[in-house]
């Protein structure tokens, strides 16, 4: 029969066993709790995980939504003003362009709305422009007087009556020498018709020109008839068509040895005109001015 001591020991043993079992059970629950927290951290979207992350708040709570802070409007950007580049042209050119444009505008306004004020405004500005141009002409004239190489009156035909006489006399002498030299190698073809009154009027001039300057005139009749001043003539053998003679009288300067023929003109010409044209056509480089006018035909 167990004694009181034995029974007490048995009770202590049972209590120890129960305490050990409870301790083991608590340890397992703690491990499961830590695993749940780790799972909640790994998956924060579930309600349980949110609870474990903030378990102090509890399940029954309501937080006010966060206030949306509107961004402060940015201050308006300051307009970038481009710095006007200086005009590289001379200021006189800029001023002239402005004046020209304003004059044109005033004129157009006056044409469309010809009121007294509009017309007067245009005429006043036009008078200002004319005065400026007149002043320029005066200065240019003074410069020409003191600078011979820019005085156009000293080149070509002069403007003074006495100087014109001297110029014409010297030029006529030079042309006579030129024609006299050409008479050795050149002749003048004279195309005419026997029923042409202008050909009859031109005949005496050509006859006197031949006698004065020694260049031979070859009369060519396109209708087979003659002229009083040139009873001996040649009939047209097709050369008039070749030279495209469609009107008479017509004169050409011909060089028989080379076959070069250049037109001098149509109609009645004076002796001075003949001298001038022959000297011009025979001048060096004259063929380059109108290459199509000169023909080359075999005249032998």
Report on this structure.
The longest helix is centred in the N-terminal third of the chain and has 39 residues, at 4-42. This protein has a six-stranded mixed β-sheet with strand order 3-2-1-4-5-6. The chain is α/β, with parallel strands linked by helices. Helix content is 51%, strand content 10%. Strand 1 (187-192), helix 6 (197-213) and strand 2 form a beta-alpha-beta unit. The protein has helices at residues 4-42, 47-53, 91-112, 116-146, 161-182, 197-213, 239-242, 271-281; strands spanning 187-192, 216-221, 234-235, 250-255, 260-266, 295-296.
Which descriptors apply to this entry?
alpha/beta, 300 residues, 10% strand, 8 helices
List the helices and strands and how they pair.
Layout: H1 4-42, H2 47-53, H3 91-112, H4 116-146, H5 161-182, E1 187-192, H6 197-213, E2 216-221, E3 234-235, H7 239-242, E4 250-255, E5 260-266, H8 271-281, E6 295-296
Parallel strand pairs: 1-2, 2-3
Antiparallel strand pairs: 1-4, 4-5, 5-6
Helix pairs in contact: 1-2, 3-4, 5-8
């Amino acid at each position: 029969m167990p004694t009181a001591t034995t029974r007490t020991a048995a009770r202590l043993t049972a209590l120890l066993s129960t305490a050990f079992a409870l301790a083991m059970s608590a340890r397992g629950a703690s491990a499961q709790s830590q695993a749940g927290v780790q799972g909640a951290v790994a998956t924060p979207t579930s309600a349980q995980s949110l609870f474990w992350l903030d378990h102090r708040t509890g399940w029954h709570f309501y937080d006010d939504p966060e206030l949306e802070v509107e961004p402060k409007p940015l201050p308006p950007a300051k307009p970038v003003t481009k710095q006007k580049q200086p005009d590289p042209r001379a200021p006189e050119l800029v001023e002239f362009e402005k004046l020209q444009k304003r004059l044109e505008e005033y004129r157009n306004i006056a044409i469309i709305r010809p009121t007294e004020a509009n017309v007067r405004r245009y005429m006043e500005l036009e008078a200002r422009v004319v005065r400026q141009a007149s002043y320029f002409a005066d200065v240019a004239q003074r410069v020409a007087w003191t600078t011979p190489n820019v005085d156009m009156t000293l080149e070509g035909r002069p403007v003074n009556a006495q100087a014109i006489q001297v110029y014409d006399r010297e030029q006529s002498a030079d042309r006579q020498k030129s024609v006299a030299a050409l008479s050795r190698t050149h002749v003048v073809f004279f195309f005419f018709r026997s029923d042409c009154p202008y050909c009859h009027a031109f005949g005496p001039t050509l006859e006197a020109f031949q006698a004065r300057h020694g260049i031979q005139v070859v009369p060519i009749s396109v209708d087979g008839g003659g002229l009083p001043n040139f009873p001996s003539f040649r009939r047209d053998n097709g050369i008039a068509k070749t030279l495209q003679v469609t009107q008479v009288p017509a004169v050409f300067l011909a060089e028989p040895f080379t076959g070069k023929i250049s037109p001098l003109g149509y109609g009645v010409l004076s002796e001075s005109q003949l001298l001038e044209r022959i000297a011009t056509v025979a001048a060096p480089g004259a063929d380059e001015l109108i290459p199509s006018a000169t023909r080359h035909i075999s005249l032998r």
